[in-house]
Design a protein that fits this description.
The chain has 2 domains: 166 residues, no CATH class; 254 residues, SGNH hydrolase (Rossmann fold, 3-Layer(aba) Sandwich), CATH 3.40.50.1110. Helix content is 50%, strand content 13%. It is built from 16 helices and 12 strands. The strands form 3 sheets. Strands 1-2-5-3-4 form a 5-stranded mixed β-sheet. Strand 8 and strand 9 form a beta hairpin. The N and C termini lie far apart (101 Å).
Length: 499
């Protein structure tokens, strides 16, 4: 047979003679080496693919780690990798994912979830004393806690990566019908490769975060400041010791469109404050002196935390006046609709063919993110009030019911009102999550059965002075919800004291 092969070969015999062992063994040996190299490359690629999939799945499911410092509790996790080498992290603020103001290097960046905020005078004194004496302040410990949470997160993520790698390798081994011995070998080697590859990826793409997290002294470093108007002046004016409750917020709390207060001041007129507001109802029900600072058109930045221009007047920040009522035990808040430019949102909805197109959705989300940051600032300032009043955060009622007959002629359809109700519910979720984070009380007034177009609406109609705002009956409904929340909370405090 060898002679036959040689006789039919096109190669000169001298080449065959110069090759030790002959040409055929060399060709076979080269083919075996090439085959082994291809198999090794294929196995390496498969193991790296398993490692990448396992690490990516681990980033999705590894639970964030809770950390606490300076009265602030957060959960530290990681964002999903993207293609940018630097960018902001993510901050879950009251259910809204907003970018952090700090920029992080690397494909993998921190994802932080705000869960609890506690502010009290003892903490403030402790922080100030520590800083004055050059010690490690509570704020610096927040940065250390965040870094520790980041490191612990990746310890868990590595363990989860190993778990996913084992499952994937077992599945592949089963499909290939490997023997038990070979399966064990594949799983052990593959898991080690996955853990090593994950550690390498973390070292390359995620190690820039700790140096940035060291800059965090408070949550404001992550949240940033809202776009406030002119800086609010420091507290001035005489104290208001006789005030027992204060209402702050927008036109819903001012009760615009209802009869004005008796002997109104220029500011009362400019803000549209009414004698039928729920502030007046609460005062009558409890025999309180209630100070209603709410003003139509108020937003967090221009109205609550900063001055507001209303009716040609400059209305001072509601928060600065609230600080003068330093013995008030209750603060009721109604805010957010103007921050979301709700009137413009409704107008765009009426004019557009649909209310949930990309442009209007992006407009709503942008306004919601801006509000969320300002809302955090406002809640922070309310929590820092020295008398620690009970704070009630009122959510908004839904003005739309199943009957839309009185709105059909102006462009409101069931599909459009469904979108508006959904967006109002999203705002209410942010309000409630923020209140819970700071330990405040959420109040959810309901106008069910008394919406627009019903036989007894609690909402002003299109021909009324202030469409979509509460009537006197609607204001009373809000007051009853506030009163019920205060009573329930007082009972809870009494029960806790009894224990």
């Amino acid at each position: 047979m060898n002679r036959s092969i040689l006789s039919h070969s096109n190669l000169p015999r001298r080449i065959l003679e110069r090759s030790p062992g002959g040409l055929v063994p060399r060709v076979l040996r080269n083919r075996r080496l090439w085959g082994r190299a291809r198999r090794a490359a294929a196995v390496s690629f498969a193991l790296l693919l398993v490692a990448a999939v396992a690490a990516w799945l681990a980033l999705l499911v590894t639970p964030a780690q809770s950390v606490s410092a300076a009265g602030q509790t957060l959960r530290v996790g990681a964002t999903s990798p993207d293609l940018s080498l630097a960018g902001p992290g993510e901050l879950d603020l009251f259910g809204q994912s907003v970018p952090t103001t700090l920029q992080f290097n690397g494909l993998i960046r921190p994802k932080l979830e705000l869960t609890r905020i506690t502010i009290d005078s003892q903490l403030t004194q402790f922080v100030q004393t520590s800083a004055d004496h050059g010690g490690a302040s509570a704020q610096s410990r927040l940065a250390a806690s965040l870094i520790s949470g980041w490191e612990h997160y990746f310890l868990w993520q590595t363990a989860v990566t190993a778990g996913f790698a084992i499952l994937l390798l077992l599945a592949v081994s089963g499909l290939r019908h490997y023997t038990h011995r070979r399966m064990l070998k594949v799983v052990v080697i593959g898991t080690l490769v996955s853990v090593a590859a994950n550690a390498g990826a973390v070292a390359v793409f995620a190690t820039g975060a700790p140096s940035t997290l060291r800059q965090v002294k408070s949550l404001s470093d992550l949240v940033g400041d809202s776009a406030l108007g002119p800086a609010a002046p420091a507290r001035n004016g005489a104290s208001l010791p006789g005030v027992q409750a204060v209402v702050i917020g927008d036109s819903t709390a001012a009760a615009i469109g209802n009869p004005p207060v008796a002997h109104p001041s220029d500011q009362d007129k400019a803000c549209g404050r009414s004698a039928d507001s729920y502030a007046v109802d609460l005062a009558q029900a409890n025999n309180w002196k209630v100070l209603n600072l709410a003003c139509s058109g108020a937003t967090v930045s221009a109205g609550v935390l900063g001055p507001q221009i209303a009716g040609g007047l400059t209305v001072p920040p509601q928060m600065s006046v609230l600080e003068q009522a330093d013995r008030a035990s209750v603060v009721v808040v109604s805010i957010g609709a103007n921050d979301l430019k709700w009137v413009a949102t409704e107008a765009l909805c009426v004019l557009a063919a649909a209310c949930d197109d990309q442009a209007s959705t992006a407009y709503f989300q942008s306004n919601l993110h801006d509000f969320t940051r300002g809302y955090y600032e406002m809640l922070h300032d309310l929590a820092a009030l020295p008398q620690h009043p009970q704070v009630l955060i009122n959510t908004y009622f839904d003005p739309f019911g199943p009957n839309l007959s009185c709105l059909s002629g102006v462009g409101f359809t069931p599909a459009k009102t469904k979108v508006l109700s959904s967006r109002l519910a999203t705002l209410n979720t942010v309000l409630a999550d923020g209140a819970q984070t700071f330990g405040f009380i959420t109040v959810r007034p309901s106008f069910a059965g008394h919406e627009l177009c019903s036989s007894q609406p609690y909402v002003q109609g299109l021909k009324d002075p202030a469409p979509f705002h509460p009537t006197a009956a609607g204001e009373l409904t809000i007051a009853l919800a506030d009163q019920q929340a205060l009573t329930k909370n007082a009972l809870s405090i009494s029960a806790a004291g009894a224990k």
